[in-house]
Each structure stands twice: as structure tokens, then as C-alpha cells.
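Teaching note: in complex prediction, the entire set of molecules is handled at once rather than each chain in isolation. The prompt given to students was simply: 'Predict the structure of this complex.' The entities are:
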Amino acid sequence: MIDNFTCFYVEKDAAGKVTRGVCSLPFDALGADEVLVRVEYSSLNYKDALAAGGHPGVVRTLPHVPGIDAAGIVEASTNPRFLPGQSVVITGNDLGAGHWGGWSQFVRIPADWIVPLPAGLSLKETMILGTAGFTAAQCVQALITNGIAPDAGEVVVTGATGGVGSLAVKLLAQLGYQVVAVTGKSQLASTLQSWGAKQVIGRDEVLNATTKPLLSARWAAAVDTVGGQTLTTIVRQLRDYGVVAACGLVGGTELSLSVHPFLLRGVILAGIASAALPYDRRLRIWEQLAGPWRMSDLNLLATEVSLSELEEKIQQILRGEIVGRTIVKI
Ligand code: NDP
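The expected output is the structure of the full assembly:
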């Protein structure tokens, strides 16, 4: 019988100020969902840092436990699909957003959110990938589905040293694509090259503030984790029938575009919504990541922290300073 569990807890104090830190809570605070999972690893994503600040666009109510990713062992289950002792992975759905998340010794969740640990990956590796890797894989899948083959030409990846960006660079390079990495951290050019980038450029090259409907055609495709003016520029820089997989908003949420890239160049803007991906497609993405798209040396991308070390990392990711993936050992 477990009485208490440890988690990273976000709440509002009497003055309405958001406070956060590691604390111990009574077990029944986890609610009554079908499957109880003892978490071994979680991870830090940009969305988690927003949740840790109580951002109303991510968290519906406080108090809250962030962590959109969790990997661990089933402790108890009222659903026959999952048995105690089974290794499982949870990413997205409502975990760490509307529902308490993986920065916790335990999560209690609906069975439909859970994926059995894919054969070929360890629990730790699934969290090095986490929602970031899952998202990068969906972006790559979107390019392939829309006709972008490895010999198509240059594929630009923005926010390239971040979680989604680093894994997109690595995966695309491994599949034989010619990757151009866009970063604000020019000092990390050789690191990006070691992940497979053929070329590294600064953020300014994909930031054109003019209102021209089209810019010189340059990229065959793109994975954009930044949004805003960066995505606006990339759409106008894509070549005929170019594809951009758009997943991020660290640089802004508004798009100021005309229809010309779509009507004159056949450009495809493919949206990626990891949390909402239906279960069968979710399984297929994990099978890809564990099988033909399995990335080598994942450990080299990861920094491991404890719950009590998360505070510093939250500040860093909000400043855009994180490199690669941060995983949380529970
Ligand atoms: P990270 O912080 O790890 O990566 C973001 C990277 O973007 C930074 O490392 C930095 O890379 C770059 N960056 C940061 N701020 C700016 C800025 N103001 N302008 C331009 N570039 C900037 O975050 P994640 O990888 O976790 O997430 C990336 C984005 O993708 C977030 O917006 C997140 O919400 C979104 N996301 C969306 C998902 C979906 O389903 N749609 C799923 C997962 C993530 P560099 O210094 O190399 O330029």
C-alpha cells in the first residue's frame, strides 16, 4: 500500500501567484483512471515549461503536475489491455495538460493513452525521443507523404538545436536528406554537423520582414518548430510543390501570408498536432521510431536531471537555450 508520492507540483498561492516545486502528495490525489503507472523517466518539452508557469493555453486548472511524456511500469490496471509489470509509454493526449503528468512517481491515466513499450527501445530511449521525437517523426512522415524524397533538394529545419529540431535534423540526415539547420546558436555549428546537417545558417536567413508574396525559391521542404515570421518566410521561400511541416510557436503564432505560394508554387503547409494523433497512427509512428527510423547514439542528445533539478531547465528552455533533449529520472 502506497500512501504518498513525490511530484513536481504547480499551484497558486493565496495572492494568486503561481508557485512550484517538488512535494509529496497523498496517493488519492491521482484520481481514479484505469491504469496506474510507476514512472521511471519523463522529459522536458517547451509545452511543459509553459505548464510549469500555469499558462492557461496549456493548463486548464491549478494545481497541476506537468510532464507531457512518461515511461514506466504498470503498477495496477482495471483494463485487461494492460497488466501489472508491463512496460509502457505515454506521450501527448491530455497528459501534463488537462491531466496531471509525468513529472511524478506515478500517473493514473486512461488505457487509450498508453502505448506498449515498442520493441527495440528502452524506457529511457523513449523519453529521449518523447513528444519531441514523436513530433519530428510525424514531420518527416508529412514530407514523405507529400512526395518529398531524399534527393528532392535542401530541407531546412528551424530551431535546430532544440528538442524537436535536433531529432528532425538527425532523422532526416539518417534517411539521406540534405539538411540545412537554422539556429540562433552559431557556436553549435559543429554539433549540428555531427547530427547530420550539411549546412548551418543563422535565423536571419529565414526571417524576411517584407510583404512580398513570394521570395526566391530555395527549399525543397522544411520542418518548422518556430512559427510566426519564420514560417511566413519559409512558405514564401519554398520551391514548386515544396512542403513545410509546421509544429512550433516559439517565435510567434501569427502568419501573414498571401495565397500566392499555394496557388503559384503548389506549396503544402502540413500541420502537426502530436497530442491529438489517433491511436493507430500513434502506434505506427512508435514502430517507425523503434524500427527503420531508429536513431543511433540517442544518449548523446540527452541531459538527465532529477525532479529537483528541473527548475533551472525550465528557465533555460523558455529562453531558447536548451540543446537537444532533457530527460527526467524519477
Ligand atoms: P525547444 O526549446 O527544445 O526548441 C526550440 C528551439 O527553437 C530552441 O532551442 C531554439 O533553437 C529555437 N528558438 C527558441 N526561441 C526562438 C525564437 N524566439 N525565434 C527563433 N527560434 C527560437 O522546444 P521543443 O523542441 O520542445 O518545442 C519546439 C516547438 O515545437 C515549441 O513551440 C513546441 O510548443 C512545439 N511543439 C509542438 C508539437 C505539436 O504537436 N505541434 C509537439 C512538440 C513541440 P536554436 O537556438 O537552434 O535556433
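Point out the following to students. Residues 45-47, 131-132, 135, 159-165, 183-185, 203, 225-226, 230, 247-251, 272-274, 317, 320, 322 surround NDP (CB under 6 Å). The longest helix spans residues 123-145.
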